[in-house]
């Protein structure tokens, strides 16, 4: 039932200095023409906007308007939907993820993405972040290797 894409792949796709740029860009383009529903987590959108425009993270950061345009292009696809940390199940799923895995610090961000996915019935995330492998019920796939 559809998929989501982590912010790291979106950043690699726009960052020409990344060794993953070509593969990530091709992968994102393949997602754009897929018939499967692409669920965009609001947390991923925020992360992409924060990272892709940050001059201390990227040598050539995007202008805010450019970053917003990337997200606009994705959100305008006919098979794309946004999902967020809401719904009656979200809090129960989120707190279970944190406590069951004893998560701390930056791992909390991954937990909120996974809880959002689970609350909306999304089970696949495309990412370079191996930390997603820790979450039961989520299939983390690295499309660049």
What are the defining features of this structure?
145 residues; mainly alpha; Rossmann fold; three-stranded parallel beta sheet; two-stranded parallel ribbon; 6 helices; 47% helix
Count of strand segments:
5
Please identify the structural class as seen in this structure. Answer: mainly alpha
Strand content: 5-15%
CATH class: Alpha Beta
Low-confidence stretches: none
N-end to C-end Cα span: 23 Å
Number of domains as seen in the coordinates:
1
Biggest sheet, spatial arrangement of strands: 1-4-5
Number of helices: 6
Q: From N to C, what is the helix and strand string?
A: EHHEHHEHHEE
- Architecture, CATH level 2? 3-Layer(aba) Sandwich
Task: Please identify which CATH superfamily we are dealing with.
Answer: 5'-nuclease
Q: What portion of residues is helical?
A: 40-55%
The major beta sheet can be summarized as:
3 strands, parallel
How large is the radius of gyration?
Answer: 15 Å
CATH topology name, in short, is: Rossmann fold
Shape: globular
Mean pLDDT: 95
Question: What features would you describe in this structure?
Answer:
The chain is mainly alpha-helical. It has a single domain (4-141), classed as Rossmann fold (3-Layer(aba) Sandwich). Helix content is 47%, strand content 11%. The chain has 6 helices and 5 strands; from the N terminus they run βααβααβααββ. The chain has helices at 7-14, 21-33, 42-52, 64-75, 90-100, 107-119, and strands at 4-5, 38-41, 80-83, 124-126, 139-141. A 3-stranded parallel β-sheet has the order 1-4-5. Helix 1 (7-14) runs parallel beside helix 3 (42-52) and helix 5 runs antiparallel to helix 6. The longest helix has 13 residues, at 21-33. The radius of gyration is 15 Å and the shape is globular. The two termini are 23 Å apart.
């Amino acid at each position: 039932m559809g998929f989501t894409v982590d912010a790291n792949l979106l950043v690699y796709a726009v960052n020409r200095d990344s060794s993953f740029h070509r593969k990530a860009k091709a992968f994102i383009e393949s997602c754009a023409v897929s018939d499967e529903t692409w669920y965009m987590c609001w947390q991923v959108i925020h992360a992409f906007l924060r990272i892709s425009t940050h001059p201390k993270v990227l040598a050539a950061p995007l202008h805010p308007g450019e970053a917003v345009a990337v997200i606009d292009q994705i959100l305008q696809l006919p098979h794309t939907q946004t999902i967020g940390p809401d719904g009656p199940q979200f809090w129960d799923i989120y707190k279970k993820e944190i406590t069951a895995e004893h998560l701390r610090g930056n791992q909390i961000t991954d937990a909120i993405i996974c809880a959002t996915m689970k609350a909306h019935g999304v089970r696949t995330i495309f990412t370079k972040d191996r930390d997603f492998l820790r979450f039961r019920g989520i299939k983390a796939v690295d499309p660049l290797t």
